[in-house]
Input
Amino acid sequence: MVRYMLSWVRAQLHISERGQDLVEYAIFTGIIALTLMAVGALFLTGALADMATGIGNCIDFVSATPCAPF
Output
């Protein structure tokens, strides 16, 4: 009887799992992206600041800094 009732409820509610994998992959990808950004923000702050300063000095044509790519 319970099995019949569950099948009737599923038929009435039109329960579908279509697209569920796509949503799961999107959430998983978002979590990975946020984790990578957090790691970059926490551990690479000094390196990123130095790079931005070097680019700024090259753009401003400060003569004391070499603007070589390496």
About this structure: Residues 6 and 12 are 10 Å apart (CA to CA).
